[in-house]
Amino acid sequence: MFCMETVAKIRRRHLVHGETISAIARELRLSRNTVKKYLKQTDPPAYHRSEQPKPKLGDYEALLVRWLEQDAQRPKRQRRTAQRLFEDLQGEGYAGAYDSVQRTVKAWKQSQRRPTNTQAFIPLLFAPGEAAQFDWSHEQVELGGVVQTIKLAHFRLAYSRQGFLVAYPRESQEMLFAAHDRAFAFFGGVPLRMIYDNPKTLVDVIFTGKERRFNRRFLALANHYLFEPVACTPGSGWEKGQVENQVGNVREWLFSPRPSFDDMPALNTWLEQQCRRLASRPHPQQPARTIAQLFAEEQAQLRPIDRPFNGYFEQPCRVSSTCTVPYDRNRYSVPAEYAGQRVSLRATAEQIVVAAEGKQIAIHTRSFARDRQILDPWHYLPLLERKPGALRNGAPFVHWELPPPIAAVKAHLMKQPKGDRAFVEILLALREHGSELLTVACALALEHHTLSAAVVLNHVHRLKAPLPVAPVQVPEHLSLVHEPQADCARYDQLRVSCHDQ
Asked: Which of the listed residues 64, 71, 79, 381 has the most CB atoms within 10 Å of its CB?
């Protein structure tokens, strides 16, 4: 097989310079028949690879194909790789090489693929501050030593390609609202339009074309920030292709291998740092500039934020006899005086707020576990006045973390008869005077080795007593001219006078 340079040389020497076939063959050390063949050839020579025989695979090919057909009926995670199939064939007695198995697996998979029609798209162009795109993705992380699947909210400004990421345990509406608050705070403003899929947290009804009936609460978010919501056509992910592409890139860049953090706030702090780091990459359409440079230009076109949106999910509920209200398979405590009353529960991405009579009566950090009781001991303190025995086994008080001096006094008193009642008196003082003053009082009682409720409360009152009054300076014109003299004999005279009478 000769290279194209040799063929071209033969044709030029004969057809252009008129050299004979014999002279060309003699000088190039070729046969005259070879020279004649290349003089007649007009197309470049092609290399045709002959099919390689598979002597080692042989009868095992049918078994391998049968395994591939069986695996095709299983979920993707349960299908065997070519390496695993090779090892299983070795267990059946196959002594050939892995390459033969790999070629057969590749050829079989290609034969099963359905022909796809390549779609054509129109490239999109956005002005600074015109639009941003949003999407959710599910990623795996390790939080506090436990592998969890988190919901990652993706934002991407369409002009500068600046992205923002924030993680939540769920994709519920209050998480969606909180994600927008954090994204707009990160961007430093709001674009004219936001482009979405059609999730139920945003869209109630999908009509023909682009017409949608958006969720009422979501429209409140859009009206607050004054952006126009735009929903993509179902099945047309290219309409927000930038954020779709970001999902794949972020999964590769940040979540492979799986990262590990202490908790969700630590994860979100890291994600924000990564958003700033990735902005140092070249812009895909203007490679001479970075994403951060175009983002600084786009920020001037974003609408400033007056205040964040107070997004929450609200529902009415009745306080149970155990002074709790239910939400999302958990129960949260409220003050005991509201037992049996109707209250309003407001759930945000991070908090549970209970309101009644136009004021907040309880605030808890939201729990995303199941079947938990989140109890504030202070909500139950009025009940302890009537039922001090509940101090020993009452659920709100079992894991109550008190300051060390107060906890030491509690441990001592609870060993004594009616010690629970005595410690309830101290707790009532804690509610009235605060933990700082009572902690000092308990520390003094421990120092003097006199531990009782009366002693602790005495220390509290002494610490609470006002300071001595400073002496008053009397003006000179009010001073006494003749100061009275002490005369004890006058007392004896009075005694005699009284006796005579």
From this structure: 64
For residue 444, what are the CA distances in angstroms to 51, 89, 416, 426, 439?
94, 79, 20, 14, 9
pLDDT digits (tens, 9 = 90+) for 263-288: 999 999 999 999 999 999 999 999 99
Q: Which residues does residue 139 pair with via DSSP β-bridges, in sequence order?
A: 150
Beta strands in 217-350 (DSSP E): 228-231, 260-261, 313-318, 324-327, 330-333, 342-347
Distance CA 347, CA 312 (A): 5
Q: Is the dihedral of CA 444, 449, 450, 452 positive or negative?
A: positive
Identify whether the C-beta of residue 374 lies closer than 8 Å to the C-beta of residue 332.
Answer: yes
Query: Each residue of 122-150: pLDDT tens digit?
Result: 777 899 999 999 999 999 999 999 999 99
Is the pLDDT reported for residue 19 higher than 50?
yes
CB neighbour burial string for 391-421, b if at least 16 within 10 angstroms, e if fewer: beebebbeebebbebbebbbebbeeeeebbe
Concatenating the DSSP letter of every residue in 268-300 gives HHHHHHHHHHHTTSBPSS-TTSBHHHHHHHHHT
Residue pair 150/138 in contact by the 8 Å Cβ criterion = yes
Contact 161, 133 (CB under 8 A): no
CB 309 within 8 A of CB 333: no
What the block records as the tokens of 462 is 């002494």
Closest Cα to residue 352, out of 382, 324, 378? 324
Burial class (CB in 10 A: 0-12, 13-18, 19+), 30: middle
Could you give the 3-state DSSP secondary structure of residue 334? Answer: coil
Q: Among 55-59, 274-278, 413-417, 427-431, which range has the highest average pLDDT?
A: 274-278
Strand order in the sheet with 330-333: 324-327, 330-333, 373-374
Distance CA(294)–CA(302), nearest Å, equals 13
Q: Whole-angstrom Cα distance, residue 280 to residue 308? A: 28
pLDDT in tens, 358-387: 899 999 999 988 899 999 998 998 888 888
Q: Does residue 161 contact residue 242 with C-beta atoms inside 8 Å?
A: yes
